[in-house]
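DM from R.C. (forwarded with permission)

"hey, sorry to bug you on a friday — could you get me a structure for this? deadline for the figure draft is monday and I only need the backbone to look sensible"
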Amino acid sequence: MEKIAVLGAGLMGASIAQVAAQAGYSVIVRDIQMSIVRDGIRTIEEELDRQINNDLLASSEKAIIMERIHGTIDLAELTQADLVIEAVVENMAVKKQLFTELDAICPKRTILATNTSSLSITEIASSTQRRDKVLGMHFVNPVPRLKLVELVKGIDTSNETIETAQDCVKQMGKKFVVVNRDSPGFIMNRILVSYINEAITMVGEGVASAEDIDAALKIGAGMHQGPLELADEMGLDILYAALLVFYNEFRDPKYRPHTYFTNLVRAGYYGRKSGKGFYDYSGAMKPEK
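My reply, with the result:
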């Protein structure tokens, strides 16, 4: 495997492209508008600068890494890739349409992966004629700093495809776990989203303030970050969408979002990225440590 294509130049896509380029792969980054592609490449440069400033990367390496990255809006350029990693919006209809298009234009040898955090790999693969070569590669955000990648099998994913993905992940300097059965949320998010949802429910019920819930988990359980601080960083809209997927798939009331959570999302309070969530980020206010 020599060339990797990343479909989507948002934060996740750009971060995956970065770690692939740092691992020595030639990388194609594709999105629907060149302005989005340029923004993604700028995100990569900023992260590399951060690494240089923290003595994690030699300044001479930046230009070499950036030369390995090529941005495009032409889907046809992805035909050059040995592996395509899709990292677009978390919407099944959008992903299935893209995988149908990729299946039609990519060589039969090309492995198609999705970075979805909650959607069915099996259903995504059903839109192709290469179900054995489709898998989930769920990179944990922030990708440059966290090591975990969940490799998820669809019902038809071959062992050879998983083994190839394992080698790729190792070359990127990541650690992998294999999810043998396609199940919403896989390992990490199924546990993590439930944990965060319980904390949100407690706020909604008036059991305690967000600050005190976060403090309890940090002081009493040794957590680096409280569940509601983490929710604000991950994005309440993303968490809410994942929770609804779990609820619809499992039909278990433990995944039902509290009305307080629903109202926050309806108000556009998505957390750090919107300036307000459980905490206010519009000024200098930050969660207490």
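R.C.: lifesaver. The domain at 3-179 is CATH 3.40.50.720 (Rossmann fold).
me: no worries. The chain has two domains: 3-179, 189-274.
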